Amino acid sequence: QKEVEQNSGPLSVPEGAIASLNCTYSDRGSQSFFWYRQYSGKSPELIMFIYSNGDKEDGRFTAQLNKASQYVSLLIRDSQPSDSATYLCAVKISSGSARQLTFGSGTQLTVLP
Amino acid sequence: KAGVTQTPRYLIKTRGQQVTLSCSPISGHRSVSWYQQTPGQGLQFLFEYFSETQRNKGNFPGRFSGRQFSNSRSEMNVSTLELGDSALYLCASSELAGGFTDTQYFGPGTRLTVL
After folding, report:
1. Which residues contact B40 (CB under 8 A, 6 or more apart)?
2. Which of A3, A11, B29, B90 could pair with B35 as two cysteines, CB 3.0-4.6 Å apart?
3. pLDDT in tens, A95-109
4. Which of A7, A8, A35, A43 would you mutate first to test chain B, the one with the most B CBs within 10 A?
5. Nearest CA in chain A to B3
C-alpha cells in the first residue's frame, strides 16, 4: 500500500463547477498535509496546507482534513481553465526525527471551457 | 524575496558521466530538500540538508549525494549516470527543518537527460 494515494484521473469538470480532489494516507502519525499544483513542464507550487481536522479556506480553494478517516481533500470552487494542472497531495510523515514530505502521484485536472 | 533558484535548468549527459546540480534557497531558509520526479515514479525524496548536515535520506543508491554550504546553498551530485537517472530534479527550501507546519517551496528544477 502506498503511503499517499491519489486518484490519478484525469478529472474533467466544466468551467464554473466545483472540482473535488481526494487523497488518502496510511500513516496515522501524519501531522500536516499540503496541496501543490504543478503545470505541465513546471515545478510544484504550494496552494495551501492544513493540519487541523475540518475545513480551511483560501480564496477559491478549500482543504478538508479528516484524520480519523485518514483523508484530505481539496475543493476548487468556480473552476477556471487556468486551474487545469496536476494536483499533488503531500503528507508530512513523522518517523522518529525524520519528518519528510511524501507525495502522492497526483491527480490531473482539466477544466473545460 | 527571490524564490528558489536552480542551475543549470537543462543538462544532457551520457551514461557513466557524473553531474552536479546547484540550488540556492530562498533568503533566510536554512533547509534544502532534493527530489527526483519521473513520469513513472512521481516525486521521490532524495535527501534533506539543514545547517550543512544531512538530516534525512531517501531510498536512493549511494551514487546520489549532496552537500550544503554555510550560506545554505546546496549541491547534489550523481556519479556514474544511468539512463534511468533522466528526470526532473527539484530542490525545495524551507525556513526550518522538520517542524510540522514548515512549508517547502520548490525551485524551477533541473531537467537531466542521460543518453
Report:
1. none
2. B90
3. 555 567 899 999 999
4. A43
5. A45
